[in-house]
Amino acid sequence: MPTAEVKAKLFSDRIERIQISATMAVVMEAAKLREQGADLVDFGAGEPHFSTPEHIKEAAIAAIRADFSKYTPVAGTSELRAAIVERHAVDFGSVYKPAECIASTGGKLALFNAIQVLVDHGDEVILPVPYWVSFKDIIQYAGGTPVFVESDEAQGFRLTAAMIERAITPRTKAIILNSPSNPSGAVMSPRDMEAIVRLAHERGIYVVADECYVYLNFTGELGSAGNFTDAKEHLVIIGSLSKTYAMTGWRLGYALAPAPLVSAMQKLQSQSTSNPTSIVQKAAVAALNGPQDCVGEMRADYIKLRDKVLAGLRAIPGVTCAKPEGAFYAYPNISAYLGRGGMKSASDLANGLLHEAHVVVVPGEGFGTSEHIRVSYATSHKELERGLERMHKFFAAL
Description:
By secondary structure, the protein is of the alpha/beta class. Helices cover 42% and strands 13% of the residues. It is globular. The N and C termini lie far apart (54 Å).
C-alpha cells in the first residue's frame, strides 16, 4: 500500500467524527496568553470559584491516612451508591436502588458510557439547541445522528413537548435534556419536563437527563426528571458532584438508570477507567451525607452574580440576554455586532475579546448557535465587574 494511503488511514473513523471540546480550546488559548504575561479576566471556565467545603476535604485526608487506596467495585463502593441514591430520593422523591446506580470519574464519563451503551449506528438522538459542547460529539462518537431542535430564545430558551414530538422518527433512540442548561442557564418548567418524559416513555424512547446543575436552580423549586417515577424504565439521570459541591477536579459523577442499563455501563467502564478514585469516593460520601448548607450558600451567591452579569450585559447597546434561571452562565445574543470591526462570527468576536480586551468567553458555535457567546459568572464579584467593564469598552469601540 502506498505511504500516502497508510498515513491517510492512521486514525480510526470514530475519532475523526469528533472535535476537541470548544471550551477546552478556549482554555488552552487563554493559557498561552497567560504564559506571555497577559492579565486575563476568565469568563470561560465552567467551574465554581468556591473552594471545596472543609468537611469534604477532611474526609479525603482521613481516607488517605486510613490507607483507603485500593481498587473498589467498578460501579463504586456500596456506601457511595447508597449515599447517591438516598440523597436523590430525599431531594427529589426518586426511587432508585444501589443496583440502579453507577459512580464514574465525572458526570461526563457517566454520560459518555450511557450514550455508548444506548446508541448504535443509525440511531437518532434528539438534541435541543443550544447544547453543551460535548453532547453532539459523544453522540457522533457512538455512531449516532444528532437531531437538533431549536429552543425558543424569546421565551428564555424554552423547550416543549410539541417541539420534541415534531423531531421524533422511527430511528429516535433517545432525547437529551439538560436543565439547568449549559450554556443558556435555562430551567425547564416542571410541566414541560413532565410532558417530554411521559411522551418519551409512551414511545419507548430514552430520556437522558443531564442534571449536573440541578442544585443551581434559581427558581426556588428544585426539580428532577427522577420525580416521574412511573417513567423510570426509559429514564437515565446523569449527576455530578462537581458543580454542587465545588469538586470539579475531584472527578465524581454518577448515573441512575434501570439495572440492566447500569450493568451494561458497568461492563463498559470495567474496560476503560474501572472504579472512580477510592479516596474521592470517601469524600463524595461526606459531601452527600454531610451538611448541605454549603450548597444553598453557593447558590445564593450565584444568584447575586447572575443579577450583576445580566445587568452588565444588557447595558451594552444592542446586546440582548435571556435571563438565566440556573447554572452559572449567561448566553448573550451579540448579533447586532456581527459585521462590525471585522467581526464576522461569534468566534471572531470571542477571539477579539480575548486578544484585545483580555476577557475569556466561549463562542456560540460550540453550542450550536452562531449569534451568541457564553459568559461564565462563576467568579468573584470584583473580577466580574472588571471583566464587564472591559467588555463595555470593547463593544463600544466596534
